[in-house]
Design a protein that fits this description.
Structural class: alpha/beta
CATH topology of the largest domain: Nucleotidyltransferase, domain 5
Helix content: 25-40%
Distance between the termini: 44 Å
CATH superfamily of the largest domain: Ribonuclease H-like superfamily/Ribonuclease H
Number of domains: 2
Oligomer: single chain
Radius of gyration: 19 Å
CATH architecture of the largest domain: 2-Layer Sandwich
Number of helices: 10
Length: about 240
């Protein structure tokens, strides 16, 4: 079974009422023996520049995005449009994975094949890890990456290569495809509070009930995972 682990670099972060586009696509294949339940190999990253400015000359390259990936419009002059490269991405893959499905999945939805978010999977398997970015996990888990293929960070090919090793670790440690897909679809039930300052770093089970009710009634900037965990905690304490 070929899991195609991909990453994209873009002109900016997708938001309502704002147009952004892919400028770089990279992928790395993980060959998984779904009978023997082990990873046979992690491939070499493939990377392509794309030129969305050909079809949308008024598109803006945001400074924040450029400061992250350091890709300039001049780098894209001879590159094809993104749709051309996405067709190559699909060919030969049995399933797809990326490290942040909420971002990368905005640009590619998986062509109807199983689609895994390794960020959510990592949060479920290693809930007490300080951070869950692919580069943090690269070092925290001592992933066996070839540094020449893993750098530079924030380019699509190298980032897909690091994420491919993360997926391989998840599979080799026994994560089932059904679990990976469920984790990718559902909010994460956190074990450690990552909200605010007062109780950040404490186990959710130890956060005082009055603070939980304050969050429910007053906090307006809770992400999906925190909302899910808050509801779980309140329900467990008989307050919903």
């Amino acid at each position: 079974m070929i899991f195609r682990v991909f990453d994209v670099e873009t002109t900016g972060l997708p938001e309502p009422e704002k147009t952004t586009a892919v400028i770089q696509i990279g992928w790395t294949d993980v060959d998984f023996d779904d009978v023997g339940k082990s990873v046979r190999s992690v491939g070499v990253p493939i990377q392509h520049f794309c030129n969305p400015f050909r079809v949308n000359p008024s598109l803006v390259m945001e400074i924040g995005a450029q400061a992250t990936h350091h890709i300039d419009r001049a780098d894209l002059v001879d590159a094809p449009a993104p749709d051309t490269i996405f067709r190559h991405l699909v060919a030969g893959a049995d399933a797809f994975a990326c490290h942040n499905k909420e971002h990368d999945g905005h640009y590619f939805t998986g062509a109807g094949k199983p689609f895994i978010c390794t960020l959510k999977a990592a949060k479920n398997v290693w809930p007490d890890m300080e951070r869950h970015s692919n580069q943090y996990l690269r070092y925290a888990l001592n992933l066996p990456v070839d540094r020449a293929l893993a750098d530079p960070a924030h380019w699509a090919g190298p980032d897909s290569y690091v994420t491919a090793h993360l997926l391989a670790r998840l599979l080799n440690e026994g994560a089932e495809l059904s679990d990976l897909l469920d984790w990718s679809r559902l909010p994460v039930l956190q074990t450690t509070c990552r909200f605010g300052n007062k109780h950040r770093g404490e186990k959710w089970d130890d956060v005082p009930t009055e603070y939980l009710t304050w969050m429910r009634d007053k906090a307006t900037d809770l992400d999906r995972d925190t909302k899910h965990t808050l509801h779980f905690q309140l329900e467990k304490r008989g307050l919903t």
